[in-house]
Design brief:
CATH architecture of the largest domain: 3-Layer(aba) Sandwich
Structural class: alpha/beta
CATH class of the largest domain: Alpha Beta
Shape: elongated
Largest sheet: 7 strands, parallel
Radius of gyration: 21 Å
Distance between the termini: 36 Å
Amino acid sequence: MTAPFRSVLLTPNLLGGDGVSCLSRQIAPVLPEPAIVLTLHDDPAAHPNDTGARRHSAGGHRLRFIALALRLLVNCDRDTVIVCAHLHLAPLARLMAWRGARVTYVLCGIESWVQLRLAERRALRRGRLVAISRHTAQRFRDANPQFAGAPIDVCHPGLPARAPEGPMTATEPAALIVGRLAADEGYKGHDLLLEAWPSILEHHQDARLWIVGDGDDRRRLESLAARLGLGRAVTFMGHVSDRELDALYWRCGFFVMPSLHEGFGLVFLEAMRAGKACIGAIGAASEIIEHGVTGLIVDPSRPEDVRAAVSRLFDEPETCETFGRAGAARFRAEFTDARFRARFAAVIPTAGVPVHLPAADRCA
């Protein structure tokens, strides 16, 4: 860790499948080189990442993570760029900047929707704030009114643009939802969809709901499906590989996740990349889905809205396909990882080097 560096990324994870890991993998290549990534939870022996940055992992040991950061601290000066990908790490990022390093704090999700602790508030008073959605920025301000007037750049994340592996199969009359089946994430909308499905089956006997994901709430949801008599209409697929998930996106008719509490929603991008119409909830999803153009936005507090949107996409396959094509075009234009990297590079301080972007790519 004594080798020279110009930038540091502090993140809980880099190699995982969660949203913070995905975002961190997109941030790392943007950092001024040479760059170092410090991760709290990654296995130090895990396969090296391909971000181009040197990775140092604490293997879940907080004291080791702090020690790794302190070893870098003496070499962080006014020419060093520090990016903090999770607010719980903000006090440590601020400590590393004691000699004038420039810090960018990323408001990455629901951890920024609650009142900050004193040490976090003090850290964020000196640094640049970047949010992954306008919804997250507003929720942050609502929970922390002392930052109501603070400027916050909004940089929507992206995903790699890629074609499907292997031959594409025919679309099936199925709606797909992807997310953890966790008791503390009941806001995703699984209950809403299950309770709506008997009504949907009255008009669409072949309508299927594919549920991808696992967690401590799966047994309860399976019991609910059984009580509702959904039988073969609903399939709990559990955890699937990335390749299997890609195939499900291509096979499904459309994607639906009426979730109220999403910081962004990478799953919508995954569906749009596969050319699928999306149904999402008011909030962050409305920054991704163009209502009536690439999909439909619903109010989860009105179950009838969810039923009507799902029924419409089953009723109108041509509309569903039109939404899907428009979604794929929107993904390529706005939501690839390359587009995110360009946006993020424009907002992090890089020793006064300007970054020029097309007007459509400027952060809000």
